[in-house]
Amino acid sequence: MIVKASSFKWRSGEHQIRSFSTSSGFKSEFCCQCGCPVPNISSSGDSYWVPAGLLSEPVETEVSAHVYVGSRASWDVGFINDGIPQFDTMPTKKDWLKICG
């Protein structure tokens, strides 16, 4: 789930967050107490990636893209004809902006 940075606010626990970075530039943030992934700010600072598994209440949202379909399981075909844009890998920022406005 992608959220605009201006719409994102930590409610608590921000002091528990730790980061891990690789030499390739990949960065991941997680809770130092339980190891759960936590929201990560984009490299541009304009949005957060929020793991949907962290949400405790239903959120009104729509699927705007299917990513990494190039590595989907052969049996995972339920979304193929749903009309939503598909990407074999992570879309470029330009493609995300086109999709999300």
From TrEMBL:
Keywords: Metal-binding, Zinc. Residues 1-70 form the CENP-V/GFA domain. The keyword Glycoprotein does not apply. It holds the Pfam family GFA. The keyword Glycoprotein does not apply. Belongs to the Gfa family. This is GFA family protein. The lineage of its organism: Bacteria, Pseudomonadati, Pseudomonadota, Gammaproteobacteria, Vibrionales.
